[in-house]
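One such shown below:

_____
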Amino acid sequence: MAKDKPKISLLLSGGGARAAYQVGVLKAISEWYPRVHHSPFTIYCGTSAGAINATSIACYASCFRLGVKKLEWIWGRLHSRRIFHSSPAGMLGYLGHQWFARMQADHHERPPFGLLNNRPLRLLLNQVNNYSRLEKQIMAGNLQGLSITASSYKSRLSVSFFQGQSRLNEWDRAKSKGRRAMINTDHLMASSAIPLVFPASRIGRTYYGDGSIHQLAPLRPSLKMGADKILIINLINQQLTSPDHTQTPGLATLGGHLMDTIFSDTLTADLEHLERTNKLLKTLSHAQRQQNRMKVVEHIHLSPSQSFEPIAQENYCYLPPMTRALMRMIGISPRDDAAITSYILFEPSYIKALIQLGYEDALSQEVTLRNFLK
């Protein structure tokens, strides 16, 4: 790749099953390149489900369309049972184990809590990801770096585990740090462990949860790895209708607001900060920017044109019966705000609808995206 070509970062935010939308966007972009063309992105940053997508694409940085096709193939064949134990025996046995473990004496180590057992996801990631390809892509110069962000329950810091070129340095900033690592399934499981829904995952001697929890600066990993441009595919929930403020908010509504806040609000604040910085830098001369080692970083922020909730409500019936029963027990039903459901609805019809939505949204901005990726 040309040395003077700008380094473009792909930033994928978290959102559980909503991340199928990102697959649709990437599918549209991949069709604009020849079959054996390298990826337009050299830096990949992901959080939660976005981390899983980023890693899968990064493994095929030398052949972008092949990587996207494989990712679409995986998502197109997902079922809830491939993500978490959804059978009656599996769910009851797991919840019983959780209850029994907490009845034991304090000196017994208790497993991390989660309503759903995501061990099938670990098995799936081990099957579909060839992590050894990452180092090969780095050595070939196709990959500048891959960053996976998780939240440490011990230090309460946002930790970005990155694998990339040797010139990349670790960093320590307020509430966040970057640490070099060989990315594997443990990092993806940690980054995608949605609080209360999935159990925390251990890396070394520390438990980690969803990377969005403590992530105050989502753009930082991209900037630290030298990005000149950043394409952000966010999964913020579009509220197209006004909520009924006369009704008492239930658990589903409160949980939905909490999820949307965790996955979206910090990114919005960080983007505002980047825009202010860019505006200030444009008032300086090129020599002044070089002297201060600062540069203008362009960005495009893509988010869904439609709300995920109506789609989730239409496909709620496809959730496994035991999962629906568990959700009803904690106060979630199709009549409630479907925000929580939209995160765990790993069913083919729902996923297919989100992929199509992402594909159409990307095509609607084809000219803008093509110019940005040059």
